[in-house]
Input
Amino acid sequence: MEPTSLFDDNSGPAAPIPARTGGPVTSPDTTRAKIVTAAADLFTRCGVRAVGINEIWRAAEVAKSTLYQHFRSKDELVAAVLRQRNDEWCARLRDLAATASTPRDRLLAIFDLLGQEFADPAYRGSDLLNFAAEYPDPDHPVRVAIRDHKREILRYLAELAAAAQEPDPDKAAATVLTLADGAACARVGLGDSTAAALAREAASRLLTHG
Output
């Protein structure tokens, strides 16, 4: 499937781009990060499909032409947002797991992280799951990227499961992630802030080693 062109935008006419004047020059890496951060916030609050490119470059406070220099398509920008969000979330999970006192608790730390997130009244659900819902074609590049990120999480959970002496680490990892995703859906769909604790208890019962 061809990626969605940034020029296929329905967000209305663009505002005039102000001429550049004197002042410090922003590095390309910093500019790219600003664009990704602005897009991530908009996508999370409004949904990917609902956000037009004009909204993104305005929120990022960059020229429209600058955005095009960094991202050739909207799919490419969405993929960058997914990578940023997944990297940040995985880093938080690793940090929290590192504080757990036992290998088993490290494996279950994902539910502790979700519990922290669910306590936020503004919680809008898993970015990976929310983005996937907007792209029904399983072969779409965004869906492929989401699967790659999910597999990355599964590999990490399998490592933790092996350290916890689970006889089938891959199955244990899949069980934990399935319950975690279900908890995220319950938090959004039912408004149940205890969903993470319930899922943790269920995972603890299903895992082999106590």
In short: The chain has two domains: 28-70, 75-206. Confidence is low (pLDDT under 50) at residues 1-25.
